[in-house]
Amino acid sequence: MSDGPRYRVFVIDDDPLVIELISRYLETAGHEFETATDSAQALKRIGETKPDVIISDLMMPGIDGYELCKRVKSDPEMANIRFIVLSAKAYQFDENRVYEFGADGFIRKPVELEPFVEYIKRIMEDRIDMVFWGVRGTLPVSGGKSLRYGGNTSCMTLEFPRGQYLIFDGGSGIKALADHLMRNHKKRMKAKILISHPHWDHINAIPFFTPLYVQGNDFEILGANQGDTSMRQLISAQMDGVYFPITLSEFAARVYFRDLEEGQTELDGLVVKTKLLSHPGKCLGYRVEYGGRSICYVTDNEMYLEDSEYHDRFYEDQLADFVRGSDALITDTTYMDDEYETKVGWGHSCVSKVVELAHRGEIKTLYLFHHDPDQSDADIDKKLEVAEELLHDKRSDTKVLAPSEGQLFRI
User: Fold this and answer.
1) Cβ atoms of residues 28 and 116 within 8 Å
2) Residue 404 per-residue DSSP state
């Protein structure tokens, strides 16, 4: 438990038992720490010692946690100190309020050692956790040919230091995500589910996302409408009694819907930009910006070869600008170039066009995604190898990876 960076931590709580427990956790993790049960005295000491992070209770006499956070964050000499609230209060209002005062994190009591230590690390590193839950396209795949990369269709998540949680698409991979969340006893979950478009491989497992049936959870499902059909209608239609035995009315969580167009919005303090993609119907690509970093999720998308009568240079220029400079581009790389010759107009791209987009857009890391169901693990290996060779030939600074189901990346 003592591996990793060491931080100077100041713990403030009027409950001596909490002080004792948190001190034990911090000692186990190898951090230096000071403690105080009086927030007024603690404020003076914080100004002198300048710790890396403050962990403070909310409900304290004299200067409570709200006021303490406000004073620390409004003082230019202390504003860069990370401030984490540790509280038994279970109300969403209080969590929202401390963030308004500038807090960097919120942990609910009681706490366990490993989640507590990991959360401190995430806050201090200010990192984004990106996990792939399904990397296939069109159809889930089972059997020996999909053991390494996995056989589930599109689903990917981003988790941010303040706890913002974005889920991209609800293909069969969202069932693996649901299993993970339930195993880890996630409670009072709040997340945004961003749908690229309503083709079956991107929404077919939403009815199997167990957290939707848990009271106290809160989800917003967002995406492009299809003309006169809203996101709510699109999701509820596949759960009509004719197609599925459980309807939207069975959801116990708070679930609401929002239609998006091409443009920009803010979700839980995150800037999210959207771009209409070249695919049958309305399909959106997403760009999420946070702390000087950006992640683009662009699937499904067809970029025609230059000798095609359908080639649209203006669209490709716009798309390159949309993804430009991103730390991660997760994008539809369904076909090898020779496969694409017989799939023109199916709404998906080949490896050479994806490499060109990543290079032109000055992407840091390209993630190959949405693999054809007929492709084996060995075929995906070959696609990755070709992408690496093409980037090398271009003398590109872009790296390329083919993520596997369940793989975690930190950005």
Assistant:
1) no
2) P
Percent of the chain having pLDDT more than 70? 99
Q: With respect to CATH, is domain 129-410 assigned 3.60.15.10? A: yes
Q: Which two tokens stand for residue 236?
A: 């509820």
Give me the phi and psi of 293, to 5 degrees please: -120, 160
CATH no. for 8-125? 3.40.50.2300
Query: For 25-73, how does the pLDDT look when each residue is reduced to its tens digit (9 = 90+)?
Result: 999 999 999 999 999 999 999 989 999 999 999 999 999 999 999 999 9
Please, are residues 222 and 258 in contact by the beta-carbon 8 Å criterion? Answer: yes
| Band of pLDDT at residue 2, cut at 50, 70 and 90 | low
CA–CA distance from 352 to each of 300, 358, 382, 384 (Å)?
A: 16, 10, 13, 11
Distance CA 113, CA 327 (A): 32
Task: Evaluate whether 8-125 and 129-410 have a shared fold.
Answer: no
Domain residue limits, the chain: 8-125, 129-410
The neighbour count for residue 326, using CB atoms within 10 Å, is 24
Residue 1 pLDDT exceeds 60: no
Find the length of the chain: 411
